[in-house]
Amino acid sequence: MLKRVVIERDIPKAGAMNAAQLKEAACTSNDALAELAPKA
Question: What is the per-residue DSSP string for 14-37?
Answer without folding.
Answer: GGG--HHHHHHHHHHHHHHHHHHS
